[in-house]
Amino acid sequence: MAVNKVPTSSVLRLELNVGIGDNGNPVYRTKSLNNVKPAATDQDLFDVAAAIADMQDYTLNGISRVDSAQLAED
After folding, report:
1. What residue numbers bound the domain in which 43 lies?
2. 73 in any annotated domain
3. I want to staple 63 with a disulfide (CB 3.0 to 4.6 A). Which of 49, 53, 70, 74 is the partner?
4. Are 59 and 16 a contacting pair, CB within 8 Å?
5. Cα separation of 47 and 45, whole Å?
6. Which DSSP category does 53 fall into?
7. Which residues contact 15 (CB under 8 A, 6 or more apart)?
8. Number of domains in the chain
């Protein structure tokens, strides 16, 4: 039997540089946006994340997309 991947959800994560720690290393925090449509394109999510990052007090360090899916047999 063939197995199909059924997308269920996506999360958009922004990693922000919030400063320097006591040991001199950078400190990062993440801001997660849940309930992202799994069908959203990577470019659209990148554009949204960039727009949100412009409104933050901290510097954007990275953007991640985390997809979840279920595996089902035909």
Report:
1. 12-68
2. no
3. 49
4. yes
5. 5
6. H
7. 28, 29, 30, 60, 61, 62, 63, 64
8. 1
Whether residue 3 is contained in a domain is answered as no
> Can you tell me the distance from the alpha carbon of 41 to that of 48, in angstroms, rounded to the nearest whole number?
11
| Residue 1 reports pLDDT greater than 90 | no
Tokens of 39: 């069908």
Amino acid at 54: D
Residue at 5 is within a domain: no
- Domain for residue 7, yes or no? no
Q: Is the pTM of this model over 0.90?
A: no
Residue 74 banded pLDDT, cuts 50, 70, 90: confident
**Closest by alpha carbon to 37, among 11, 62, 55, 60?**
11
pLDDT at 48: 96
The answer to whether the beta carbons of residues 3 and 71 sit under 8 Å apart is yes
